[in-house]
Design brief:
The strands form two sheets. Strands 1, 2, 3, 4, 7, 8 and 9 form a seven-stranded mixed sheet that branches. This protein has a two-stranded antiparallel sheet with strand order 5-6. It is built from four helices and nine strands, in the order H-E-E-H-E-H-E-E-E-E-E-E-H. The protein is of the alpha+beta class and about 170 residues long. It holds the Pfam family Lectin_C.
């Protein structure tokens, strides 16, 4: 086989792989009827029946092929906060934490950094990290639409989000 034919075969294989991965919805939930569509166009599950740790919330979302919510802009944070406030005045887990990094280095579920000096944080936050503490991010629905930090072992409600890759399939 000559080099040019090998390159063509490789390109054909890549194209086929890309087409197949775009059609693969196995990583998406089969039923999204229990999700709430918010004005930002994203779909969420607000679990306001049970309080769990951040780690448990993460697993519960993943078991449903969702992830903990990641409102990375003030607009998304305000949108999620408003819905949470409509439901009940309790704390809600989000996806960001410093659990897999150095204390004070926060990341969303997808690895995107959340700076400690981000304007998304409440004044004085994040404050509950360092000295062996892992901090996980949450919102307080009975307060402003800003992020808070707390020990990941605290018990709060949680918000799951449909992965962006699944939005076009549902």
């Amino acid at each position: 086989m000559n080099l040019e034919a090998t390159r063509r075969d490789l390109n054909d294989l890549k194209s086929s792989s890309i087409r197949n991965s775009e059609k693969d919805t196995s990583h998406c939930p089969s039923d999204v009827s229990n999700l709430t569509v918010l004005p930002n166009g994203k779909k969420y599950l607000f679990s306001n029946e049970t309080r769990v740790t951040w780690y448990e919330a993460k697993v519960l979302c993943e078991m449903q092929k969702l992830h903990l919510a990641s409102p990375k802009t003030q607009q998304d944070l305000t949108t999620v906060h408003r819905k949470a406030r409509e439901l009940t005045f309790v704390p809600w887990w989000l996806s960001a934490s410093d659990a897999r990094s150095n204390p004070g280095q926060f990341f969303w579920h997808d690895g995107t950094s959340l700076s400690t000096n981000s304007l998304l944080w409440s004044e004085g936050e994040p404050s509950d990290y360092g000295q062996g503490n892992e901090a996980c991010v949450w919102i307080r629905s009975n307060a402003s639409d800003k992020l808070e930090g707390s020990k990941c072992s605290s018990y709060y409600h949680y918000i799951c989000e449909l992965p962006a890759a699944c939005m076009s399939h549902k």
